[in-house]
TrEMBL record:
It comes from the Bacteria. The keyword Metal-binding does not apply. The keyword Transmembrane does not apply. Keywords: ATP-binding, Nucleotide-binding, Transport. InterPro entries: AAA+_ATPase (IPR003593), ABC_transporter-like_ATP-bd (IPR003439), ABC_transporter-like_CS (IPR017871), ABC_transporter_ATP-binding (IPR050763), P-loop_NTPase (IPR027417). This is ABC transporter ATP-binding protein. Pfam families: ABC_tran. Gene3D superfamilies: P-loop containing nucleotide triphosphate hydrolases (3.40.50.300). It comes from Novosphingobium bradum. GO terms for molecular function: ATP binding. Residues 7-241 form the ABC transporter domain.
């Protein structure tokens, strides 16, 4: 990756005006964001947080009320056409001609960006998405998962350098979802920069290099995924005791442990996702040394979803 961002957003704002029985809504509130070349960036947030509006502003579907957007060093207010030709978008909604055959639809998307026909490239994309055998079928005849694959194929038809995926696996079964994420990994390996939103936070945890959390139109955190989990992650250890324990013995005083209400459980909670292995090992050693018999040891580490729920809950409170 180079140090120059492929996308730089500064002070982006968007307010939707009031309508009958609906007050004005601020969808984006002074958003600053840089996307690095070659990364997978996961944008997380609850429904209505501003994810789709942010993507729409970059892709020309939403006119922002304030702020600037630069892609590939180009000001999208002045050089929108040149910048947009290098951006791909897989929208959340299925917005395609259901009567158009798959091959024609994907080929047409390439032509929309002024590129010469390239049947070999279109075939390559369709095969990668397991759509080649369906190339003659009308889109309306396909399953929901296959229709979403068509959206991805259309977004890739002009070989974008920056790809936006807005809930790309929504409504897709587990097998197709796995195939899609494999393709996304391959695209990143080829140098494509990917920005995605997803409700499947475990997928973002597996795939993303960095994570941003947006809530009520504001970016509340942007951080390396590993650093975020190390900083905000928690580890909880529950030790099942063979006999009830009335009080914490002196041998366990160095550890932040509590006795559960049942007197048969010791609970240890640590913050940060690093170093807990040594703490657990030292605790087990202390238990054995104090002749405290235990029957079970359960360790739970925070997932990215746990951290996301806590961040959003903290802001909502």
């Amino acid at each position: 990756m180079t140090s120059d961002p492929i996308l730089a957003i500064r002070g982006l704002g968007k307010t939707y005006p009031a309508r009958a029985n609906t007050p004005a809504t601020t969808a984006l509130d002074g958003v600053d964001l840089e996307i690095r070349r070659g990364e997978i960036f996961a944008l997380l947030g609850p429904n209505g947080a501003g994810k789709t509006t942010l993507i729409g502003a970059v892709c020309g579907l939403v006119r922002p009320g304030s702020g600037t957007i630069h892609a590939f060093g180009l000001d999208m207010a002045r050089d929108w056409r040149a910048a947009r030709a290098r951006i791909g978008l897989v929208p959340q909604e299925l917005s395609v001609d259901m009567f158009e055959p798959v091959l024609l639809s994907v080929s047409h998307s390439r032509g929309l960006f002024g590129l010469a026909p390239d049947p070999a490239r279109i075939e390559q994309i369709l095969r990668a998405l397991s759509l080649w055998d369906k190339r003659g079928a009308r889109i309306g005849e396909l399953s929901g998962g296959m229709k979403r694959r068509v959206l991805i194929a259309k977004a890739l038809a002009h070989d974008p350098a920056l790809l936006f995926l807005d809930e790309p696996t929504a409504g897709v079964d587990v097998e197709l979802r796995r195939d899609m994420w494999q393709l996304i990994g391959q695209l990143r390996d080829q140098g494509v920069t990917i920005v995605l939103t997803t409700h499947y936070i475990e997928e973002a945890e597996e795939m993303a290099d960095r994570v941003g959390v947006i809530h009520r139109g504001k970016l509340i955190v942007v951080e390396e995924k590993a650093a975020l989990m190390a900083r905000l992650g928690r580890t909880e250890v529950r030790v099942g005791l063979a006999e009830p324990l009335g009080a914490i013995p002196a041998a366990l005083a160095p550890f932040p442990v509590q006795v559960g209400d049942d007197r048969l459980t010791l609970i240890l909670r640590t913050t940060g996702a690093q170093g807990h292995e040594r703490t657990i090992a030292s605790l087990v050693k202390a238990l054995v040394g104090a002749d405290i018999a235990f029957t079970a040891l359960d360790v739970h580490q925070s997932s990215l979803e746990d951290i996301f729920v806590e961040l959003v809950g903290r802001k909502a409170g």
